[in-house]
Amino acid sequence: MENALRPLIVLGGSVALTLFVGWLADLALRRADLRHPETPLWGLLRRCRIPLQLVMLAGLLRGAYRETAWHIIQAHEVGIGRALTLVLIGSSAWLVVRIASAVVEATYARYAATTRHPDRLRRVRTQVTLIMRIVTAVVGVVAVAAMLLTFPDFRAVGTSMLASAGIIGIVAGVAAQSTLSNVFAGFQIAFGDMVRIGDTVVVDGEWGVVEEVTLTFLTVRTWDERRLTMPVSYFTSKPFENWSRGGAQITGTVYFHLDHAAPVGLMRERLRELLEKSPDWDGRAWSLVVTDTTPSTMVVRAVVTARNADDVWTLRCEVREQLIAWLYEHHPYALPRVATTVAPDRDPAAPGRTPDAHRDARLDGEARRDDTRPPVRDRDRHRVDGEPRLGRATPARDASPRPPA
């Protein structure tokens, strides 16, 4: 009877104690969250209930599994003990990561609730994200190393490798040069305030918003919902545009190619009316001037300002659309026109004709159509500077009456 109750007491007692402690901890955190709603830490720590229970269950079973006195457990005592140790190490690492994540997120939430500077908020968010990734990586590496050290064979290998640690470090550094450069670039971006999550950047001609920053790569979300994944070393070795650096407000331009008779003064008044009605204009500045002229058109530039890149894009499109519609409706003469002339009539080209024959036929037709045109004298068929004159001499008609037939 004792041999039957002992395994039940050990296993059942461990599970019951684990569930009770988990419920008690969750209850305490829930009450603390209700008492201190301004601090999100207690609510975030409630996510640690499952890893906490797993750590406690693995620890209890690791210390009391020999007391079950089961034959199958005694036969595989070493393997079961090692498996419970691995579970204990893994669940402990999971618990540490959850606690660190809760603390970091709570700190960022409190800072976001007190600050009013979006630039500082994006910088802190980027740093917090990278710090959390570093903590996760470190805890994961330590947990894996601890798991490997539970095996005697890996202990012997680790001891022998310490003697050649210097050579292995050099070889690993050369082999992972690009990876290490990305890691150091990630640190530089995180703490050098070069680019932050939420910044509007232009990379390789693509406009987008920084969505994710890690120690090795950076993700940019473009305006059409595409994702550009680039190594972080790119941002430390090549130039790029950061429109959010120094403030999110931005200036946009709209160009118009118009006729020289366009009413620039009326366009300036119309632009002011459009901006006053637009919610995207931040009211900082605006202008409309002629920046260039060509023989057929002139270039009019409208300058507008907005709070961020999204608003300035919308405002530019709105100004362009409204001004063109206004010009088309009230001042159509201001729109650019293409000057054309009517080409002279030509005889159909006969096959086998040379260019000179085509030219002579065209000139003969013009002479026949124009009765007032004087005949071309033979004396005009001479060369000027070695080039023939454009025209064909037409012999003068005989004014004497013809003999009767």
List the helices and strands and how they pair.
Blueprint: H1 2-35, H2 41-45, H3 49-64, H4 71-75, H5 77-114, H6 118-149, H7 152-161, H8 165-175, H9 177-192, E1 200-203, E2 206-213, E3 217-222, E4 227-231, H10 233-237, E5 241-242, E6 250-258, H11 264-277, E7 281-293, E8 298-306, H12 309-330, H13 355-369, E9 383-384, E10 387-388
Antiparallel strand pairs: 1-2, 1-5, 2-3, 3-4, 6-8, 7-8, 9-10
What can you see in these coordinates?
By secondary structure, the protein is of the alpha+beta class. The protein has a five-stranded antiparallel sheet. A three-stranded antiparallel sheet has the order 6-8-7, with helices on one face. A two-stranded antiparallel sheet has the order 9-10. Helix 1 runs antiparallel to helix 3 (about 50-65), helix 3 runs antiparallel to helix 5 (about 75-115) and helix 6 (about 120-150) packs antiparallel against helix 9. The protein has 13 helices and ten strands.
Helix and strand element order: HHHHHHHHHEEEEHEEHEEHHEE
The average pLDDT value, as a whole number, equals 75
Helix content: 55-70%
* Tally of alpha and pi helices: 13
The Cα radius of gyration reads 43 Å
Characterize the overall form.
Answer: elongated
Protein structure class: alpha+beta
In the sheet with the most strands, the strands line up as 4-3-2-1-5
Low-confidence stretches: 350-354, 368-405
Termini separation: 155 Å
Largest sheet: 5 strands, antiparallel
